[in-house]
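Work package 3, deliverable 3.1, input record:
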Amino acid sequence: MKFRALAAFLALATIAFPASGPDEAKAKLFHAKLDKDEQILHALDRLTFGPRPGDVEQLRALGLKKWIDLQLHPESIPENPVLEEKLKPLASLDMSALQVVQHYPSPQLIRSIAMGKEKMPEDPLLRASVTRLAARYKAKKDDKNADPNADMEPLKPLEELLDAAQIKTLNSGTLDEKRLLLASFQGEQLDDLIIALPPKLRGQLVNAASTEVRRKLLLMQNPQAVISYDLVVSKLERAIYSNRQLAEELDDFWFNHFNVNYDKGADRFEIPTYERESIRPYVLGRFRDLLEATAKSPAMLFYLDNFQSVRPDIDAKAKGNRPKRGLNENYARELMELHTLGVNGGYTQHDVIEVARCFTGWSIEEPRKGGGFIYKDKVHDKGEKIVLGHVIPAGGGENDGERVLDILAAHPSTARFISRQLAQRFVADNPPPALVEKMAKTFLEKRGDIREVMKTMLSQKEFWSQGAYQAKVKTPFEMVASSVRALNGDVTDAFALSNQVSNLGEPLYRKLEPTGYSNLNAEWVNSAALLGRMNFALALAQNKVAGVKVDAARFSTDPKEIARILLFRDLSVPTQTAIAKALDEQQKDKAPSPAMVAGLVIGSPEFQRR
Amino acid sequence: MTTRRGFMKGSALAIFGVGAAPAWLSRSVYASGLTPGKRKKVLVAVFQRGAVDGLNVIVPYGEKRYYDLRPSIGIPANAVVNLDGFFGLHPSLAPLKPMWDSHSLAIVDAVGSPDPTRSHFDAQDYMESGTPGLKATTAGWLNRALPNETGKLSPVRAVSVGSNLARTLRGPNNAIAVGNLNDFQIQNAVGSATFESMYENSLDTTLHGTGRETFDAVKMLQSIQKQTYTPAAGVEYPKGKFSQSLQQIARLIKAEVGLEVAFTDIGGWDTHVNQVGGQPVDGQMANTLKDFAQSLAAFYRDLGDRMSDVTVVTMSEFGRTAHENGNRGTDHGHANYMLAFGGAVRGGKIYGEWPGLAEDQLYEGRDLALTTDFRDVLGELVAGHLGKRNLGAVFPGYQPKFRNLLG
């Protein structure tokens, strides 16, 4: 009913204001209020990764105001024990970059170990993995034609660990049989088994393994892959299971705002620390703190190359063919364009150079080995700089960069740019300028307090308006998370599930460009993506998506009822008509399946919106 | 010259093998459109995202100043593939040399967008919209470049290969994004019909239009999905996303489903550090260039004679600093190069005036100056190749100056 009412209103609005054009009609929608039920669904659609069964009732019982207040103070919400249990095995999430390098060595490090330049790791499984990869590397070095997939002899042959029947089960048993057998191994025995498995079989057993065993199988095949496994799995599981939903939405927002790419060199082992220490603690904190945390993170220093930017005159007197070192503008530019002022925020090419000079010396100690932030005074440009009209006197040292962050964080352009970015994510692609201005005012008055900016946004009528209601198309990540939440799915392998997010166009932690993924509907509405979503919806509801178990068979066959369960509102007339027709035709040979109907609802136009 | 009928029969056999003709022939209506007896011209646009370092691609090895500016990353004169005694190709571009020799490949140098921005995002946006400096333009130039036609239009006239519909192709004319042609369908027949009806009748203005375009295209592509694609004899596309994208475009062109414009892109050009390895043929940029060149060459050879109706044009948002930076890389600059080949392009020639690399010749004292507006190149191809009459609608507020690229 609600959706139909909105649609009718939209149609009416267009007819009623023909002279004013679609933009004015849209602007008027930001003054049209939502009813109580719409408000509750809107809050869940915008501030969570989509409602789960029971969420609407819970929110109604708690009251909208109280619920929002809790979400704005995530530390006051007890975390879901199911999530905590799921995150436990993901050890790299809690490690320093140095530990990540040691536990999940890169191919370069493995080569160094092979050549005797670095020590062999202690952990037996990792030791076996490194031994195997190092031997492979050596074989390839000695003989260019050596089979790169040839494996080394295991220390203990498989026949010593398993009897013939067990080996047969691992090779050709059912998934459950394999799962049971794998689960019966623990500790050293399990490590021995994983070491002894042929590589091909390791790959095949991934589906039958628990998270712990899956990580061990990965470690044995390719140690670095475990890092991306932990990242991707934790991101999806937090979105699906966390009770602190707004904090997770904001984690996604801010990581994307300060994007770094997993595939760029050192970022591979820096990202766990980056997200844990530079993003997550500040998602509702002070913008200035968040900005500094990212500016000093090895992940950002590496990603935008600042770690090697040095004063331009450093090699002026150097002789010979050695390349001359100097300034690198990459970070300085993106800092102003993407992180703070916005591209029209009032800076010039000259400012880019001056800012780059200020940040010379902000670097990484041993960047290839997981070292931390270091200020290198020797390479710092000690002259006077002028940034956006502010004179930064000569001799400021490390503090030059801090001064730049002060200037940028307090700049009105930053207040407006950040407010608009937030409003685009949480309100609409073209948020009303008046709303953005109010948020920007709060940003300046409360000295960049993100929680206060969010509060301002959530207290304005524009947020609770028809103009915002269902105005955003879900990103692929939101689409996958919200559909699993709506179906109350049990995620058994979030890594496998993450393939769906990639297929729909948003590989997690792998956005190459510093812009991050787009906030706008147009980015996600296209034919390839829509077909991908429809196929995903049908497969998911019919329990055919790897990594998640759903039970849509328990639903009734009534599409209206399924819609209320999954969509939390009524279907549009076209969707309902289309499904009714499908059911009629299907009835000729077999009974309509509730799972199929559920898939059709999840693939419908209305489920693509939030 | 074979007759059209003869050609179609021949290519049907070549593409699909014996016995596949009937379903396919029904599509030939789109191939001829409203002008019977004439195949559609196709314009393929390729975007090198991230600002490729043009000075290390079309190397002005004859200018000493080039080596002064780039002491550690300049491509040595003895390593370039010589073009005309002054310019040479980066060695990784060797696969394109035969196209130059046969006068198919033209190079435009010192070309780009007159807008001074050095923001990747803005510069790509301006180049894709075709309106430098104007942010409010919603449609892309290639969408507006589609010739005005009445009657039944092919749902796959305009295809953007990749998981997103590129900005270049967004706009009022139907345009679809295709990741992989074989996946472009709903796996379940009842589901397909139901979704089609849902989206067809939806009041959701954003999703309704895309949904309709999608299902029209699904139906159109069904028959070619049943066939496995075999490139022309002896042609091997390299592995990789860009190459696969070009292969999808080649497949669409050969299937005669009415393709007129296509877009794809290749990233990885933002070389702020260590852009050249120990040898000019090594390193990050050389590897990406190799992929770029081998893929384009495979596409060219795969299409064979069909290239007479197909023109490919490449671009990148801006060039990079003339001087190397402190990390054996280059920062964001200004003018760059464009490639064009196929169709009536008069190749084997470098177009555009060379502005020189002396300090006072550089743009803002640091970047290659611009002597040709990118819209001059695109405008000429849109008018001369696609036959679009009203260029004012494609590049509003600008009158492209033709460089006589087309013979």
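The CA atoms of residues 43 and 188 of chain B lie 34 Å apart.
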